Amino acid sequence: MRASLFQIAVDENESVVSRRDRVSGMIADVSREQRPDLVVLPELWTTGAFAYELFAAEAEPLHGATYDAMAKAARDAGVWLHAGSIPERVPAGEADAAPGAADAPVHDGHVLYNTSLVFTPEGDLAASYRKIHRFGFDKGEAVLMGAGHDLVTVRMPETTLGIATCYDLRFPELFRGLVDAGADTFVVPAGWPERRRAHWSLLARARAVEDQAFLLACGTAGTHAGIPQAGHSVAVDPWGEVLSEADGGETVLTVDFDPTAAATARDRFPVLRDRVL
Asked: Is 43 annotated as catalytic?
């Protein structure tokens, strides 16, 4: 199986529309040249993960402009596409029943979520995932967006993807839940800051080795609202070995791996079988 991680640079001088068009073109070009099975985009690449003032201004309904563009890109390229995440806008009345909605502010009658989209090669929506763990403590995403509550997996022909986003990487119980739901490959789009890049690398390897799964972590390049991004997208195998890692600039990291190696690792070293809690 081949995966291409698009480490997109977010430049505040590039409009959301221009970046969306540019990324659509990149998906077409890379898919034609490298023929990946799976393409992964970063977290909040339309706005920048730290561009808080743009969340409400650029928020979209689930089936909005980015959805349409990414569905077309997946269909035209014939690839599975994890289209990163968008600031999703949901009418407040529809969000009220969801855990985490009560503590999320309402913007012009809407609640915002950090929502990932995954498309099939036919351009159909395979799954959406609202980020469960919101970053920022008392500012930013943590106080501007609602929290998701559902674990999400996506069954591909070769593997079952477990979907997480950025700050989720710090919460191992989420990944154990994804393992219990059948995941053997984790996909983690992110907008991770450069100043905590060491944590990014450490946690990516930890989540892979403790759950005996492949992990594909796709970050952003550039600077979001004055916050330099870590880049260093990485693919890790079930033994915690780094298969490939990007540098800090905009790039596409393409890696080949055999998803059946996760089952082999679990058979050879059956640590998950000894779980007590």
From this structure: yes
The reply to whether 277 falls in a domain is: no
For the chain, state the CA radius of gyration: 17
For tokens 């008392």, what's the residue?
138
Joined together, the tokens standing for residue 85 give 């995440």
List the one residue out of 65, 75, 82, 69 whose CA is nearest residue 123: 75
pLDDT (tens digit, 9 = 90+) per residue, 177-220?
999 999 999 999 999 999 999 999 999 999 999 999 999 999 99
Q: With beta carbons less than 8 A apart as the criterion, state whether 234 and 242 touch.
A: yes
CA gap 203, 186 in Å, rounded? 13
Token pair recorded at residue 162: 């477990």
Catalytic residue, chosen from 58, 131, 141, 218, is 131
Report yes or no on 236 lying in a domain: yes
Distant-in-sequence, close-in-space partners of 273: CB < 8 Å, separation ≥ 6: none
DSSP secondary structure letter of residue 146: P
For the stretch 19-64, pLDDT in tens is: 999 999 999 999 999 999 999 999 999 999 999 999 999 999 999 9
pLDDT attached to residue 95? 75
Mean pLDDT value across the chain: 95
Tally the domains of the chain. Answer: 1
For residue 166, what are the domain limits? Answer: 2-272
Of the residues 58, 88, 141, 166, only one is catalytic, namely 166
- Tell me the C-alpha distance between 149 and 60, whole Å: 20
CATH number of the domain bearing residue 147: 3.60.110.10
Q: Answer yes or no: is 71 within a domain.
A: yes
Residue type at position 132: I
Amino acid at 142: A
Task: Judge residue 244's burial from the number of C-beta atoms within 10 Å of its C-beta, 0-12 exposed, 13-18 middle, 19 or more buried.
Answer: middle
What pTM did the predictor assign? Answer: 0.96
